Amino acid sequence: MPAFPAAARTALADTQLRSNLAHATSTIRAKREAVVGEVEQWEELRLSGAAIKDRALLDLEDHLVRLEAALQDRGVTVHWARDADEACAIVGDVAQAHGLDELVKVKSMATQEIDLNEALAARGIAAWETDLAELIVQLGDDLPSHILVPAIHRNRAEIRAIFRRAMAAAGRPAPDDLSDEPAELAAAARLHLREKFLRARMAVSGANFAVAETGTLVVVESEGNGRMCLTLPEVLVSVVGIEKVVPTWEDLEVFLQTLPRSSTGERMNPYTSTWTGVTPGDGPQEMHVVLLDNGRTRALADEVGRQALRCIRCSACLNVCPVYERTGGHAYGSVYPGPIGAILNPLLRGPDADEQTESLPYASSLCGACFEACPVRIDIPTVLVDLRAQVVDAHRPSRKPEALAMRATSWLFSSAERLRRAEGASGLAGRVMERFGRRSAPGGRRTLSRLPGPGVGWSRARDLPAPPVESFRAWWRRTDGGRSEGDRS
To answer: What are phi and psi of 475, to 5 degrees?
Structure first.
């Protein structure tokens, strides 16, 4: 992926994309505001959620060991994965051990993060997405652009075209008379997926929460596809980020109030599935849990940025972000888009991992709307500013134009004589511009239309006021320390 500014420029030129995003995000925002407004103690719930997650992160090692023991006591095989390659290998090995060439999946950000589908495909195993939006993305050979609604960039006419074009190659075809009515599109997806649910012997899920106290995993969803994946297959593998652990069952009380309101604008999720190990004769009879690091311990070591690991993947920050609303998720180049992606990706990978990752902390106006919407009070603007500093520090000493300009400015300001001469030159430039420059507005000051050289990018979207004709030092001398003639008399 290109750096964010280049990708955003392409997205901004897509008027259909901007229309789709504006409609979808405004609808979700309005629903969220209505149900959040009903809760008088909303701010107390936000504070409680942040405290619970911080407590879990503070003693993460102890809680993970406790979770592992509770899972094993209930017949679950626990695996530890340092990175994406290890996690994908574990899932692939389980599938091949059972001689499988296909499996079904619950919507999972962690499995998207590690490119599990692609890794399984390389081993001849087809991974079928069962979430409606994920199905649209998969059939369209597309990339997700939103945490909650991965196909938010598509309208229903585009979805109908995808179903008509691609469903037959992946299983049951779309009806010949399929319209773009949402109910008909959902019915076509339901029929297409039903045969996969009934045929699949293995499923892969993530987890919204993992309760250390009981070894319980939790998935919340709105469609029921997750419930089908978690109950029908013989084998279940859950890939869980290590930050998803919460200490006790009681801690879920807060998140099961804040997550649905912040994500789908609902008072509660239509489907909340919890599973605690293997129960003979009921549900999957073989369970595996892959506890995934993949940069999370790196993020945990960042004293400012570790708060990003509180994230419960609600997407509220995306829906209120003016930058996301105009560029969409693909411009962020990651499965985690929007404000949370702008901090989570650099924290997991390192802020200087590549040019695209380096650009993400700057993909924000720092308006603060994301912090106000976050149900666990992640101070995204503060983390963004800190990551920007880390990006700059990673390139010291640097020959980038900005760094060279800062060093030149430091050299100039470190000498009173050099500064005096520069002020004189500045005054001369100001007098020239007063005569030949353009006015920014009727009666306004003269401005430069464009800086030369490296400054062209800065001045393309900004007016540069002309330097003052008279420097501060000259004015001070002329007015005898700022006193007027009347003051001196």
So the answer is: -65, -40
- Is 80 exceeded by the pLDDT of residue 469? no
Please name the helix (run of DSSP H) or strand (run of DSSP E) that holds residue 473, with its range, or none.
helix 472-478
Helices (H) and strands (E) in the chain, counts: 24, 13
Question: Exposed (0-12), middle (13-18) or buried (19+): which is 76, by Cβ within 10 Å?
Answer: buried
On whether residue 303 sits in a domain, the answer given is: no
Task: Tell me, yes or no, whether 5 and 24 share the same domain.
Answer: yes
Q: Give me the amino acid identity at 263.
A: S
Helix (H) or strand (E) holding 112: helix 109-113
Contacts of 215 (CB under 8 A, 6+ apart): 67, 69, 70, 71, 73, 74, 76, 276, 277
From 323, 406, 330, 309, select the one nearest 363 (Cα to Cα).
323
Q: Identify the band that residue 430 occupies on the pLDDT scale cut at 50, 70 and 90.
A: low
The rounded distance, in Å, linking the Cα atoms of 213 and 175 is 48
* Domain hosting residue 432, numbered range: 401-488
Least confident of 109-113, 341-345, 353-357, 429-433: 429-433
> Looking at the structure, do residues 422 and 390 belong to the same domain, yes or no?
no
Query: Residue 300: inside a domain, yes or no?
Result: no
DSSP string, 383-452: HHHHHHHHHHHHT-S--SHHHHHHHHHHHHHT-HHHHHHHHHHHHHHHHHHHHHSEESSTT--EEES--S
Backbone angles phi, psi at 484, to 5 degrees: -75, 170
The C-alpha angle with vertex 227 and arms to 222 and 233, in degrees rounded to 5, equals 150
421 shares a domain with 377? no
Half-sphere exposure at residue 332, Cβ-oriented, CA atoms within 13 angstroms:
31
- In degrees rounded to 5, what are phi and psi of residue 55? -65, -40
Task: Report the C-alpha gap between 418 and 109 in whole angstroms.
Answer: 56
Name the pTM for this structure: 0.84
* pLDDT tens sequence across 337-349: 999 999 999 999 9
In a domain, 302, yes or no: no
Here the CATH number for the domain that contains residue 1 is 1.10.1060
Phi, psi of 183 (to 5 degrees): -65, -40
8 A C-beta contact, residue 49 and residue 258: yes
- Do 115 and 151 sit in the same domain of this protein? yes
- Domain end call among 239, 272, 294: 294
- Are 289 and 78 in contact by the 8 Å Cβ rule? The answer is yes
Q: Judge if 147 and 262 occupy the same domain.
A: yes
In this structure, the answer to whether residues 82 and 226 fall within a common structural domain is: yes
Concatenated DSSP letters of 332-362: GTSSS-HHHHHHHHHHHH-TTSSHHHHHGGG
Q: How many domains does the chain contain in total?
A: 3
For residues 387 and 418, membership in a common domain is answered with no
pLDDT tens digits, one per residue of 145-168:
999 889 989 999 999 999 999 999
Domain assignment present for residue 301? The answer is: no
How far is 196 from 129, CA to CA, in rounded Å? 10
